[in-house]
Write a structure and sequence with these properties.
495 residues; Immunoglobulin-like; six-stranded mixed beta sheet; 41 strands; elongated; PKD family protein
Length: 495
């Protein structure tokens, strides 16, 4: 990725008293710091610029003398990073991979040799160990080993794929379950990501927390010691909203042998519902991405229970009360498919299936409990719903994949229609997909062709939802995908 910063220098001219070549004296002792701005009008002074591993920093400097004087024609440029002069040309260009990971103190000094004055300003560069913005895909190879494959989708001329199979020498385990990218919940449109949580079913450390910027390990959850009640940590399901924090620590819910456990701050709790012995099977416990929506649990043959939302109503940090119940009669012989919720507990939509049909059940008044299910049958004259995968709910509609297409479903009438179809390139059927957090109007789609003759049998497609335009296609550059997440930084480099 090539990023260009244009800087405009507007401001006070500093007299240079015996300035040495080392630039140790730059006139700052006079208290006269020039106003240095970037092309977008923001100040350079004290700025921190974030760059991904394969970025190239390019800075173009311009001087605009406020008092109308002519532009000096004898200028010397000194670009220093961590005290080392890395450039003496007008334009600064440097590969981020040559910088140390983390923050480097930088200074730009422009010396007017004829007038014996300098212009100066300090800033910082944060060199990330990975990618600042892009698609993070949890996948597994032919041995079911967990890895993360990263595609930097902001890049125009750089199609590098970064793959992580371990962090600090620790393997990510086998049979990937989920990837959680957590961020600080700010008012900014984009996200300040801080933690990656990788969850696998098997491994010495089935759950690993990694710092997003440095890729240093933050927390490890060991298989035989992480769960406080002693059982081995072998999760079959993991949920977390990107901004869910408890006492400053990211938390999520996992299932072990059908029992719900909370994961936070390096510890896994015992069974959250120990008193009632709920068994949610392999993946029957759902917490909506909507903060206001409660946990919904499904037990085959017994139906659904809706519990208080753990973020707002807790006893010792764990959910404690059944808030709403669905009548179990309708769900007796049905299997769970997906859930979504809105409007502070009131609206919960549940999709279930039997061998021949799919249906949507919606609650609309939390006072009336238990609910008598009033299903809306999904109209499927050709029987293709049996091949459907990965249901998501967005802006009042359900979306899911069948073969190589995405479909949109209305829960009001049970009718679904084609939303997007991949190009015909023999890359296999869709195995997972995701929206980009409603931030950047992106959608990522992963396919897998088990019969491909290539080393990797998966492909990745990145679409812009504005017109459903295909922006990137990575054909056979991916392993079998389990989860797609997006990182969208709120750190602007002033381009």
């Amino acid at each position: 990725m090539k990023q260009t910063i244009k800087l405009i220098f507007i401001g006070t001219v500093l007299l240079l008293f015996g300035c040495k070549d080392s630039l140790e004296q730059d006139g700052r002792g006079l208290g006269m710091v020039p106003i240095i701005k970037m092309a977008n009008g923001e100040l350079l002074q004290n700025r921190v610029f974030y760059y991904s591993l394969f970025d190239t920093v390019r800075i173009e400097a311009f001087i605009d003398i406020e008092n109308g004087s002519s532009l000096p024609n004898s200028l010397s440029y000194f670009w220093t990073v961590s005290g080392d002069t890395l450039g003496r040309q007008k334009d600064f260009s440097y590969e981020v991979s040559k910088l140390p990971t983390g923050i480097s103190d930088c200074r730009l000094v422009i010396k007017d040799v004829t007038r014996d004055v300098v212009y100066t300003s300090d800033f910082k560069i944060y060199a990330l160990a990975g990618v600042k913005e892009g698609s993070f895909i949890l996948s597994s190879d032919e041995k079911k080993c967990t890895q993360i494959e990263v595609f930097g989708y902001k890049s125009v001329d750089d199609d590098k794929v970064i793959r992580y199979r371990n962090f600090a020498g620790l393997a990510l385990g086998r049979e990937p379950i989920n990837l959680h990218l957590s961020y600080l919940n700010t008012e900014n449109k984009a996200k300040n990501f801080i933690t990656m949580r990788v969850v696998s079913k098997f491994g010495d450390y089935p759950i690993i927390d990694v710092d997003y910027k440095s890729l240093n390990i933050q927390s490890l959850y060991a298989k035989y010691t992480a769960v406080i009640t002693g059982e081995p940590l072998v999760p079959t399901y993991s949920w977390s909203s990107s901004d869910k924090f408890l006492n400053g620590n990211l938390y999520n819910i996992i299932l072990i042998d059908g029992q719900a456990h909370m994961v936070t701050n390096g510890v896994v709790s015992g069974n959250i519902y120990e008193q009632d012995k709920y068994n949610f099977g392999k993946s029957g416990l759902i917490v909506s991405e909507n903060n206001s929506t409660p946990i919904v649990g499904f037990e085959k043959g017994l139906g659904f229970r809706v519990f208080e939302e753990i973020y707002f109503n807790t006893v010792n940090g764990f959910p404690n009360q059944v808030f709403l119940r669905f009548d179990s009669l309708y769900f007796k012989d049905r299997e769970f498919v997906a859930l979504a919720g809105e409007n502070d507990y009131s609206d919960v939509e549940v999709i279930t299936r039997d061998q021949d049909s799919f249906s949507v059940v919606k609650s609309n008044d939390a006072i009336l409990s238990p609910y008598k299910a009033e299903p809306v049958n999904i109209i499927d004259p050709f029987g293709i719903m049996r091949r459907s995968v990965h249901f998501l709910y967005r802006q009042g509609s359900w979306f899911f994949a069948i073969d190589r297409s995405l479909y949109r479903l209305s829960s009001k009438n049970g009718v679904f229609e084609t939303f997007l179809t991949l190009p015909n390139d023999d890359s296999g059927d869709i195995v997972t997909w995701n929206f980009s957090h409603d931030l950047d109007d992106k959608i990522g789609i992963a396919t897998f062709n088990p019969n491909a003759k290539t080393d990797r049998k998966g492909s990745y497609y990145l679409y812009n939802l504005k017109g459903n335009v295909l922006e990137k296609k990575y054909l056979y550059q991916l392993n079998r995908a389990t989860k797609i997440e997006f990182a969208i930084s709120n750190e602007s480099n002033g381009e």
